[in-house]
Amino acid sequence: MKKEYDFSKGERGKFFRPDAKMNLPVYLDSDVLSFVEKIASSRRSDISAVVNRLLKSDMQLIEAVK
């Protein structure tokens, strides 16, 4: 690695996109993952769809309790 880098010809914000959507990885514990995998395989669905359904149902429960 160099001690110094020359950014004098750099353009600030060249790659910035305010509407860009960023999907962050979510890491599940092994027991949670196996639980979700079982549901996904029985419903012939993918893991993301199952996790989203579970979270949405939790969101509805929380809203109902408020």
Give a brief rundown of this model.
By secondary structure, the protein is mainly α. The protein is built from 2 helices and no strands.
Helix-strand blueprint:
Blueprint: H1 30-42, H2 47-65
Descriptive account of the structure:
The chain is an all-alpha fold and 66 residues long. It has a domain at 30-65. It contains 2 helices and no strands. The chain has helices spanning 30-42, 47-65. The longest helix has 19 residues, at 47-65. It starts with 29 loop residues before the first helix and ends with a helix. 0% of the residues are buried. The model has no long low-confidence stretch (mean pLDDT 95).
Helix and strand run: HH
| Cα shape | elongated
Q: Structural class of the secondary structure composition?
A: mainly alpha
Query: Quaternary status of these chains?
Result: single chain
Query: Average pLDDT across residues?
Result: 95
Overall number of strands: 0
Low-confidence stretches: none
Distance between the amino and carboxyl termini = 54 Å
Largest sheet: none
**Rg, alpha carbons:** 21 Å
How large is the share of residues in beta strands? under 5%
Query: What's the helix count?
Result: 2
Bin the helical content.
Answer: 40-55%
